[in-house]
Design a protein that fits this description.
Elements: H1 7-34, H2 39-47, H3 66-81, H4 84-103, H5 106-118, E1 123-126, E2 142-146, E3 149-160, E4 167-173, E5 187-193, E6 199-203, E7 214-224, E8 229-230, H6 236-272, H7 285-313, H8 319-343, H9 355-363, H10 372-383
Parallel strand pairs: 1-4
Antiparallel strand pairs: 2-3, 3-7, 4-5, 5-8, 6-7
Helix pairs in contact: 1-3, 3-4, 3-6, 4-5, 4-6, 6-7, 6-8, 7-8, 8-9, 8-10
The structure holds flavin-adenine dinucleotide.
Length: 390
Amino acid sequence: MDFSLTDEQRMIADTARKVGEKFGLDYWRQQDKKKEFPSEFWLEVCAAGIGGITLPEEFGGSGLGMLEMAIAIEELSKCGGGSTVGQLFMVNPIFGGVAIGKYGSPEMQRELLPPLITGELNCCMALTEPDAGTNTLEIATFAAKDGDGWTLNGKKHWITGTASAQKMLVIARTTKSENVKRRTDGITMFLIDVERKGLSHGKIEKLGTNTLDSSTIFFDDVRIEPEELIGTLDKGFHELLDVLNTERIVTTAGLVGCAELAIKLAVDYANDRKVFGDRPISAYQTIQFPLAQAYAEISCAQLMNYKAATLCDTGESYGAQSNLAKLIASQACDKATMQAMQTMGGMGYASEYHVERLWRDQRLFRFAPVSEEMILNYTAQHDLGMPRSY
Ligand SMILES: Cc1cc2nc3c(=O)[nH]c(=O)nc-3n(C[C@H](O)[C@H](O)[C@H](O)COP(=O)(O)OP(=O)(O)OC[C@H]3O[C@@H](n4cnc5c(N)ncnc54)[C@H](O)[C@@H]3O)c2cc1C
């Protein structure tokens, strides 16, 4: 077990930090206020070679692993973007990159990986439906065979980054659940254009993550061409898990960076702020302990995430580790950001001090992309051998 970073990994962290510092806290505050996709940031991340960090060199990527991606995300998010940076990596390198890189046809890879790596192409992933969130297998969006392709009908919601995406990874049933032996069968992934006849979308008003829209999508007789099938017809569910498990690693990396940033902002403020007499408020244990506790927890989550990423990169099973890392990271980041606000008193409530945005954005990850209840269900059943509770 070697915990030290290689020279290359340290270089990646440095590069990411430099890109992150070019933007910083005020850039993200403005983007949040304007509710605008952080295009300049993403293009710069891609120009530094980080957007395509795990993708093959022949298409312009760096051919590295999820560990390097996690290290880069931590640094980038620590500089101001917080957990939203993890989400940016979800939409492009994961929903686009992992899906196309692992399951796309050679033509699809040749056409789409280069612009994905340079940041010219943005993606989104449409899985969740009004009646299928935690219970993914209940999805009802249906792609009916139609000549050599399919016709898609249904509704998705909470789809991140739809308004700025050109391509959408759609998860649909291609065989109705009543006609399959196992409920995981009959599900297929397609990669389609967002701009397409019959596809419409509208933004959902929400608490945070303002730089990435969340949209409701309607598919009304949307044509899918044969070459837009991605992976295996009717067997897409297991392929989708590769996308979703790597999604947990980038989520956790964003949360680690966000928690570290919130703790740093709180400590700086507390070291400076004097309320009674000459001692700064940071001298009080009631201020110190919750921040120290959050720091302890996020450090453990970071280690578990590195383990998940390493297992993923060496081709071993990593689902359990990526789940546990995400569970602890989301709880620790929630504590860190909330305690950062508490530490700043009234100023923690002001956008100028940034922690309220960090708290709003990261709150999402207590229940998405997988909820903490479902991680605990999985852990109790699969890791501990207890009966399924639902
Ligand atoms: C801002 C945002 C961005 C998102 N981005 C995307 C995206 O890009 N693409 C996409 O496809 N989806 C996206 N989602 C959807 C997200 O993945 C779902 O919200 C999430 O999976 C939870 O589903 P749900 O909201 O339907 O909650 P529900 O499934 O209704 O669950 C509600 C609550 O009940 C609990 N619960 C349910 N079943 C059990 C059980 N058996 N045991 C214990 N507790 C249980 C859950 O843990 C949760 O706390 C996004 C959501 C948000 C809010």
